């Protein structure tokens, strides 16, 4: 089976999964008690106001008609109107997507930059102080809850040292990039990066700890394999052996974890987004749940689910590239 | 006839925010924490009280309604009667606590409004941070205090209110009731919209009609029983469907002035753009992130101090205080009492507190036993030790209450004292009610009001300490609890904690929704309903 065929198969599976998510999310609404219109009209509204609204929302149609309408609308990117405010759900989600992606990517970068070298060094200097230090750091990272770490970082770094902004996303990457292109101003880019540092560290710490441990154990497993001995026998420098050959094979399981984590970060950064007033999808989902804003809840879950699927396909493709045996399953 | 007030969506705003948002206003008043009257046999022995040792004596209100009473006297009497009937357990008036940078001179308002016009400062730019921003800029799109604070720098209500809640001139300079069901508003002739157009009476009439249109407005039922607003000889005339005594107070709280032609041209964009008459014009609106304003040069009134103002939102309490201390923002809302020391110790910032217009109480739904018994309801009032809750849980940021209407609000009865803590009398009354052995479940919304769950836990454990009643707490999501309580009374929980803000500072808003027919009704008593009906048929002058 060639690479293209493999990818096509994966994409098809992905589409099926997204359809499944859409279906579950659509019918979930009918399993929850209460009339969805009750959130939209004043409690003292008369029956005729409710009926007109039900009609406007298409809620008076049979279920299969509603489901068909929902699918056909989704196909053209129409998630419907928010039930809490008079806006398109698609525009609400689009407005929040960049913030979420920025934060997820930034915290993943934090993790990769710190964790992989640390894991390699740990494995190479096994049972030396460096290794113990890394282990201690991992233990701390895995066991520290985000709500505590985030608040501590704000108090010490932002308030006491006054080094970085406390909270909030005051600038989008697009704005900073535009300033760079049109005015050649680097300072805007610096401001954009500064606001990201603390939330990215908060969100990335657990993840960094996890990858450090994974890298270390993966390296230790690989290091005793025959091909490493062969490299060394050939007289390859140790660094080259480790970073080029051993690490490449170690990376395969790490990429899987990275992909899954990235997916989680897109929808699961609720706590960090709340602490840092970061206007992303996680916070939006919680707000929508609190408002019983069904259309927004559905739209957000579908986008998060689709994000997961896309990332998974990307991981699979990368996998196939790193390990050709995968394609030939 | 009682109008039913609050739009349910008002209630559904951001359950995660600590403070409630039902649009709210009120007046600073100090609830008297005097000890109640008629202390049966409260010898303070709470360890092993014996029902036989106390008188099972019902508390009574002995006020008389005078001949040909004023509306205020009727409402005061209704408050006295409601203390005796004890439809709910009166707890406390909630406080609003703000953190403020010392570069700003500003005094907090009981109605929780933040008007940049009222801030004196040498600074050109200031930042104000709430728990949430405005989900829409449409002035009738979301009826909540936090949204009004954001949009009211650019949009203006028809009338405004002084700090005691009385209507004062704003866009409307003169207001009078010309007949039983008609009022006439005289408007300013020197007002300019941000787009440069002059404001007309037609715009004002249109704005009132738009606020009263349930298809687009969140305050359609709240603004009043209005048939239609129309322009007549340069004035605005409101044709009412009933007497609507609180119409002028309503016009201070609901609806904002918009330009008719602009709304028609920008239909569908109203949520994201702004064209008002206020002292600031919109500079930038980033959903969920910030709303930035700069001064409007052609404002009809006095130019405010700051050249520009930005509103931001930080949902978490701790980080919001940190942002103030770090100097990233200049004014924050909802500082928790336990964060006050941090604010006090920090350089260059202070805290401001004021009693709000919000009353926190336990509703006893009389559709269910044992709450259909007056003895039992009074017993619950004697059982709960409100003073200890205020001192120990709220760090004294709260005032004990005795009635639905808060001190200083129109119709508050100053002669009614709160219930004293008297467990022995409570037990005797429970015995008297025939409901000894009752098992109660107190529902409480989680994270909606200041220390809500802790307050409910304290109430429940005090009730549970009675020999003949047991009580436990059920923590609920706010949105779910609200959807149950606005349904049929028989589907609502029997016993729950809730907060009620009063944007009109009028007793009818405090009692009408809960005691007369409508979505919020949880208590049925003819005498009380008749009193509220009577009050609604007496005009209230220009207040």
What would you call the shape of chain A? globular
Largest sheet of chain A: none
Q: What's the quaternary structure here?
A: heterodimer
Largest sheet of chain B: 9 strands, mixed
* Number of E strands of chain A: 0
Give the helix proportion of chain A (percent range). Answer: over 70%
Using only C-alpha atoms, the radius of gyration of chain B works out to 24 Å
Strand content of chain B: 15-25%
Overall description:
Chain A has 329 residues and is mainly alpha-helical. Chain A has helices at 3-31, 47-56, 63-75, 89-124, 129-143, 146-160, 173-183, 187-223, 226-234, 238-268, 270-275, 281-291, 294-322. The relative contact order of chain A is 0.15. Chain B has 543 residues and is of the alpha+beta class. In chain B, helix 2 runs antiparallel to helix 15 and helix 9 packs antiparallel against helix 11 (423-433). Chain B is built from 15 helices and 19 strands. Chain B starts with 7 loop residues before the first helix and ends in an 8-residue tail after the last helix. The relative contact order of chain B is 0.22. Classes of the chains: A mainly alpha (329), B alpha+beta (543). Chains A and B meet through helix 4, helix 6 and helix 12 of A and helix 7 and helix 13 of B.
